[in-house]
Amino acid sequence: MRSCDAAREAVNKTQELKFKRRRIMDNRAKPSQDDTRDIARLSSFCVFERLRSAGLRPTRQRVALCNLIFGAGDRHLSAEELHEEAHRAGEPVSLATVYNTLHQFTDAGLVRPLSAEGQRTYFDTNTSDHFHFFVESDNTMIDIPDGMVSVTNIPEPPEGMEIVNIDVVVRVRRKRDKSKLA
Fold first, then answer.
1. Mean pLDDT along residues 2-18
2. Which of 77, 86, 96 is nearest to 141 (CA)?
């Protein structure tokens, strides 16, 4: 079994690939065919290792969804958004499979669920402790920069319980143009 480190050595261009990937993600350059192939090789090795190390068998559908979820870096997405992305990418998965996979990824600690809007749950690929803005008009989540929110006076949990996480979601909307209201 190859680890991500061994896969990176096999590709033998780790730093260059990271730079290329960052440049491509920032839309500063159009990827060449070789760049795309090398980045895909590196990503697929890491996806298999990521799933295995989380105790999940790397099935075809899990690998495909994992590539979609983590291929674009840290982000927030709903099951419906991932389902649409999968279909656009030519991955025939049902919405139920997407939900089941996201819940398996949550249980394995790969993603973190966030509730912000009624019934919809968003899944965050950044599982570290951090807080969010929820943009009501766009139904999108944005990370609040570290150090911008302070949570104090946290009560002791009930007997036999422990605090797992504290979610802070600040709902925002675009300012209304007051000159148009007059």
1. 46
2. 77
